[in-house]
Every structure is written in structure tokens, then in C-alpha cells.
Amino acid sequence: MNIYEKFINKFEIPLTLRETNAVFDNIKEDGGFLDSKLVQSVYMPVYYTDGGSGRAFSYPYDMEGYYELIKEILKYKEIVITYPEGKEEVIEKYYKMGVKSFMVSKWKEEYKELKNKYSDLYICRSIVGNAYEYDNYDERFDAIVVPYKDMLDIEKIKEVSKKVDLVVIANHFCKPNCKNLDNHCYYHMKSENLKSNNTPYVCPEGKDSFIPREVLYELLPYIKTVKMIGRTLDVIHYENYINYYVFGEPIMQRDKYDYMNLTTINKYNFSNMKNMNCRFECDKCNKKCY
Q1: What is the H or E stretch that residue 7 is in?
Q2: What percent of the chain has pLDDT over 90?
Q3: How many domains is the chain built from?
Q4: Looking at beta carbons, which pairs linking 104-108 to residues 24 or more positions away fall under 8 Å?
Q5: Are 18 and 57 in contact, with CB atoms under 8 Å apart?
Q6: Which of 89-93, 97-101, 184-188 has the highest mean pLDDT?
Q7: Residue 64: inside a domain, yes or no?
Q8: Whole-prediction pTM value?
Q9: Domain holding 142: CATH number?
Q10: Residue 240 and residue 259: Cα distance in Å, rounded?
Q11: Is 110 helix (H, G, I), strand (E, B) or coil?
């Protein structure tokens, strides 16, 4: 199996705020800049009137238009609805539209009842709300987003993948042991950022970056989904990353934040870190990897 074949049906892409037509192009066969065979699913929040979290803001649709958008996307790809947060009636509402997958931050007993009722309901735990619970792989979930500190712990990922499906966020990987991890996770949940600031969080410790190709290749056999963030950015943001991973195309520098600059991540010695089974506890380690 070649590299391209390994990435087929692997990527989860965001429904971007301003370019829903471009998203449709990327999920239709031969429609867009991406090969649609690479796309597994599209993630989007619950409509803002359905509650949820700060991420559940309104897209430029009324409620019925948003629900019709969901039904249209489902003709081509799976959908992951994010952050219904323990509202049984909301999950059931979207399930009856055809959505089977939901991403939540914490386990609620209501999910168990729903899963008993709907056998194909799929619940994934996000990294938001559990940013510091590095070792908490709760098997009540169907899937779990891999915490940042475990990204290079191949042996742990191998072991956990036998119990739950794993999701890796590929293009949201900062400085090892970043002290601002909560901001990386919570920045886009703040309503003022969602509504007035469509730029990415710029970390003073480093800058948002991405997992290098060679690391992601090693993870591929053990992960179900490669998630691409970028709901508030242009679609070229995740398109570039995906084509970099699959075809080795260079990532273009996009804006004043240098958000896609390869040098951000390449200054770290990943081979050395991986050989040491690195846990990003840099303050406790005398090795200089960056």
C-alpha cells in the first residue's frame, strides 16, 4: 500500500465559516483542490440556538438553512457534530437528521443511555476540557483525541488503539511542554474571538504548527482519523496541510502570523525525542532537543 492509499478516507475537515462552497467542492468527486477520497468527514458545531458551548456559534444560515446544509453534506461525507455537551435531546435531534458522530469534552451518563438506544451512535472525546488529562483514555468513549503530550509516544498509542479509536490533530502542535496549552484549546471557545477575530491563536511560547510527515506516517496504522483544524480560516489552510502530508507538496506561508512556516516545527529534533519516548517534560530533562 502506497502513501496515498494509506490516507484514503482519513482526514476530518472543518466546515469553514466563509467558504462552504469550497468545502462542498472538496467532498465531491473531482470537485475541488483536494482529492475527495482523502476526506472521511466534515465537523461542524450544533446550531447556536441548540446550545452547547462557545463553539456553537451561528454560521451565516438561519436554523432551517443550517439543518438543510447538514443533510446536503451527508449526501457525500459523514458529519461530526461538535459540543452538544450532555444535551440528550440535541444529540437525538441531529441523529435523526442522519448524523451518527458527536464530539464532546466530557463523559455524561446520558451518552450511555443514548448509545443503548442507538447502536451506531459514535461519541468521541475532544481535547478541549481535558487538556491536561494526558493519561485519561476513557474507554466509555468510542474514540479519543490524542493529547498533545502523547503525540510521539508510539508504544502508548499502539496499546490504546486496541481499546478505543484514536484521532490526531495534525496541524495544531506547538512548542514541547507549552505553558499556554489551555489557550491553544480554549481560545476559539471565547465568544469575542469567534465573532470578531478570525485569526488563529498566536502563542508567545512558539506558534501553532503541525506534526511532521514522518511522525504522522508512523502514527497512521494506529489512528482512525487525522483531524485538521481551521474553521475560522480559509480552506487553503487545511488543503495545504493535507497535500503536504499525502503528496509532499510544500506548505505555503499565508499571513503575517507565519502560520504555516515549516521552520516552527523543524527546529525540534524529533528523531531524538522519539527515541527517548519523549513526554515533552522539558523542564525535567537535560537533553536539548530544541
Answers
A1: helix 3-7
A2: 28
A3: 1
A4: 105/53, 105/129, 105/130, 106/130, 107/138, 107/140, 107/141
A5: no
A6: 97-101
A7: yes
A8: 0.78
A9: 3.20.20.70
A10: 12
A11: helix
